[in-house]
Records
---
Amino acid sequence: MKQTDSGLQYKVLKEGTGKSPKATDVVEVNYEGKLIDGTVFDSSYERGEPIEFPLNQVIAGWTEGLQLMKEGGKYEFYIPSDIAYGEAGNAGIEPNSTLIFTVELLKVK
């Protein structure tokens, strides 16, 4: 497990070979989000299709973490609350929760 200065921890499950996104790029990903207790709160796998979004319009932990990846890669991120949803929380996420995301970077657009 590696850690960045922000506290983001990550593990490379599969190294990608394509290009890495910049914060201003649009990315297409498959992902699963879990709470520390293992409860899945969101999953593109369960919906059966990947999601596409501008990388600078998601939580800071995603913006930072996905820039470490290359297309075709799969990482596991442990995102502390201060670079996730913080004190506000979100649907199904208590305030100040550390989140675990498994993310596959399919494409940088």
---
Amino acid sequence: MGQIYSLFYRVLINLLVPVVLVRFLIRGVSRREYWQRLSERFGRLPTHLSSGPIWIHAVSVGEVNAVRPLVEYLLKNSDVPVLLSCVTPTGSAQITRLFGSRVSQVYAPVDSGIIVNRVLGAVKPCAIIIAERELWTNFLLLSILRQIHFAFANLRLSDTTFSRARFFLPLCRHALKNVSVFCVQTKVDAERITALGANSELVHVTGNLKFDMKAPDGIQESGVVLRERWGGTGRPTVVLGSSHEGEETQFLKLMIELRVDFPELVAVIVPRHPERFNRVFRQISDCGFSVSRVSEWQSDAKVNADVILVDSMGKLLEFYAASDIAIVGGSFTAVGGHNVLEPILVGTPVVFGPDM
């Protein structure tokens, strides 16, 4: 049964490749980064990649941050080159920001058998590690056929991911039965991946890699300097980090109420996805707030605004450090909360919603 599902999946994905291409082209209209290195997603890789690396896949910024301790450990203790892949331009930018030229990076290939085979043949990885919740069937099956060690690290299976995977249970069982090891975050994740077909003897509860994260040197000091731009400790500051659709509306309503008692209050909003920057800017303006966009800041000029919109990537931790209270986005929607440990790392009290 698993092989029948696998065949159906391979045929379906190959048929959908043109649709995926069109989707990337459309997304590139609003975000040109999606047009850059587009060929990598369809199997045409840079020629300078080292052969035989340990390949670690992390979808986007959050997953890249999560695997940082693992990557740093490998770079320090192994002579094997490290290749990192991701799906989003923001994830790619974060890889460059954290590791520079110490690792190679590519966009993950579309999960078509033809494309994946071409990529695996070019890269020849000695091992592949998938971070968190990515379950790519062709990538997994074809890697195992090539006798490449395949592992999951920091694996978590949300209610949504688990429900979707159960719909394809025969396919999951077929794909997971030859994975070398599963390192999961919680006992619930262990139970779920076992229910999907993993060998329970290969499933280990190792906790969350994010607990091994360390605050960058000088980040608190940077926060103090940053806060001086809008008045220092004289203006109480609340930040909403990694926000999603609908959360800004709730946050702005809260700010309206709080400013009755705290008229000098500064609200900072850091949307999770760059394509929403302009939309969130209009939303803030429509609420009657004066708003300052970080992308338009000049040198050390002072900021006099009710709301600061962080429309630049890689600045979240610094704004957490500059704030009195951090509200973690995603936790007020079905998306699920983002990394609650980041504000804790810089010593900022944290608030999160029911969907953490």
---
Amino acid sequence: SLHMAVYPAYVALVAHVAFGALQSEGKDYLWPMVGAAALAVFGTHVWAAVREAPGDHPPSLIEKNGRVRLVAVDRITDGRAVTVTLGRERVAVFRNGTQISCVSNVCRHQMGPLGEGRIIDGCITCPWHGYQYDPVTGCSPPPFTERIETWNVTVEDGYVWADPEPNPLGTPAEVGTVPEAGS
């Protein structure tokens, strides 16, 4: 996507400036600084990947009526999500009051982790840039047109169960319902 082209452009710009400065006489002290900066950027990306991996709940092998068990409902905080693996996809299971929905964990804007976001004004909100999606349809509110995958879910026996295949983009998903506290 066009937004992802920012990264190679940024690398090219930094490399252009760094190598231009490094060609000047008497600037040998810049080599370790440029190397350290490159290692720091690379290292923080590796650190983030390693740190994020254990946060996922492992894929479930338990199936029932063609659906896969994802996570216990009581593990999902209201207005937040739990990230799980469904097949080969990382999905975010959100709780919005008594409603449970399952969407792709990847924001269409710049591939942000939706599962680290929260529900604001009834919409899933990406923590990186605030992009929003309807938890039922996966569509961004107008005038935006981005859409993310949704999965049909049910709540049974205290667990969220999902169809293994996503719905077509923009299709309203079946959402699970959690009984209200005290009922």
